[in-house]
Amino acid sequence: MDHMLNKVLRVGQLYDFYNALLTEKQRDCLNMHYLQDLSLAEIAEQFGVSRQAVHDILRRAEQTLEEYEAKLGLAARYHEERTLLAEVVSNLEQLPHQIRQLPELRCALTKLSVLLEDTREV
User: Nearest CA to 57 among 90, 27, 81?
Assistant: First the structure.
């Protein structure tokens, strides 16, 4: 169960970064299977192809996403930057209250917190 959930999360993350680089059919199949939770049979029926054909499209699309990530590393970079951003916010929040109340620092902390919240949604 954990393996399948991890796979769904991984494919979803890579899809967020690289879906525009897939073919329309690959995007549609991934969307239907992972986001809409349709079975291979349901997708096959919609496309008028076999379950095996859908399986092959999904497998190739997943492989393509992984190849793009291996070459471009956008998802890994995103996660590294998000981790660093969270560390910076945490460090700033641990400063003494008087320092945190400086207008420039309050402004910076607010902006960093907004960025961190925005990245949590992706």
Answer: 27
